[in-house]
């Protein structure tokens, strides 16, 4: 998932500023590469304020993953990919929307919870689980449209489910973000989403021209 970034002009309380700093700095530097001092500096708070709100950097990591989910949920709920009347068109529009918001620096469009999960899945299980709730929760928002598209196209025994395809969209997204980082090239993530769109059209036996 992605997209909210940057602090608002009217900054909130110290806890909110620290969470906003975590959202942006960790995407740029990674969790291990981000120090408490980095976060305090970005948030313009004291280290005492940090430890008043969070007992450890790991606790901040859990809260940052939850904060990310709270930010992106309304962002995606209001996105235009929900507008098409046809369920498959909505699924394809989701893929197109995800491609469209790959703009700016790598740290601006990549996913905080994906970044965290890749880095701390073994060393910080509480952060990993918070990231999992975020990623799988977002995937679940696609399931109803995918299932409706399956019914509309008479697909009943294709060896896959709405749930598995919804999860696959997130695998492609997160993998695309990794490729974009590895190649320092956002087009690598966009390319992955183009292939995802083709794959979905193939699953539903629709022509290539039926783009989102």
What does this structure look like?
This is Transcriptional regulator, TetR family. It holds the Pfam family TetR_C_13. This protein is mainly α. The chain has a domain at 58-204: Orthogonal Bundle (Tetracycline Repressor, domain 2). The protein is 68% helix and 0% strand. The protein contains 11 helices and no strands. The chain has helices spanning 14-29, 36-43, 47-53, 57-77, 87-100, 106-109, 112-120, 125-140, 143-152, 162-183, 186-203. Helix 5 runs antiparallel to helix 11 (186-203), helix 8 packs across helix 10 and helix 9 packs across helix 10. The radius of gyration is 18 Å and the shape is elongated. The mean pLDDT is 93.
CATH homologous superfamily identity of the domain at 58-204:
Tetracycline Repressor, domain 2
Spatial gap, N to C terminus: 19 Å
Outline the biggest β-sheet.
none
The total beta strand count reads 0
Describe the oligomeric state of these chains in a short phrase.
single chain
Low-confidence stretches: none
Helix content: 55-70%
SSE succession: HHHHHHHHHHH
Question: Which class do the helix and strand fractions yield?
Answer: mainly alpha
Per the CATH scheme, the topology name of the domain at 58-204 is Tetracycline Repressor, domain 2
* CATH class call of the domain at 58-204: Mainly Alpha
InterPro entries: DNA-bd_HTH_TetR-type_CS, Homeodomain-like_sf, HTH_TetR, Tet_transcr_reg_TetR-rel_C_sf, TetR_C
GO molecular function, one term: DNA binding
Keywords: DNA-binding, Transcription, Transcription regulation
Protein name: Transcriptional regulator, TetR family
């Amino acid at each position: 998932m992605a997209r909210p970034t940057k602090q608002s002009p009217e900054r909130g309380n110290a806890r909110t500023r620290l969470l906003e700093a975590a959202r942006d700095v960790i995407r740029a530097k990674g969790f291990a590469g981000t120090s408490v001092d980095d976060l305090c500096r970005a948030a313009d708070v004291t280290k005492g304020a940090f430890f008043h709100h969070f007992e450890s950097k790991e606790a901040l990591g859990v809260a940052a993953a939850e904060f990310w989910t709270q930010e992106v949920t309304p962002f995606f709920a209001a996105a235009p990919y929900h507008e098409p009347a046809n369920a498959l068109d909505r699924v394809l529009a989701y893929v197109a929307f995800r491609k469209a918001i790959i703009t700016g620096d790598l740290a601006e469009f990549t996913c905080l919870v994906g970044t965290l999960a890749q880095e701390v899945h073994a060393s910080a299980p509480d952060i990993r689980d918070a990231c999992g709730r975020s990623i799988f929760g977002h995937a679940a928002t696609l399931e109803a449209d995918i299932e409706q598209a399956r019914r509309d196209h008479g697909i009943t025994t294709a060896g896959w489910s709405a749930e598995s395809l919804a999860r696959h969209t997130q695998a492609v997204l997160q993998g695309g973000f990794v490729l974009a980082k590895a190649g320092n090239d956002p087009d690598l993530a966009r390319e992955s989403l183009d292939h995802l769109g083709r794959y979905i059209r193939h699953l539903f036996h629709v022509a290539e021209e039926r783009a989102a």
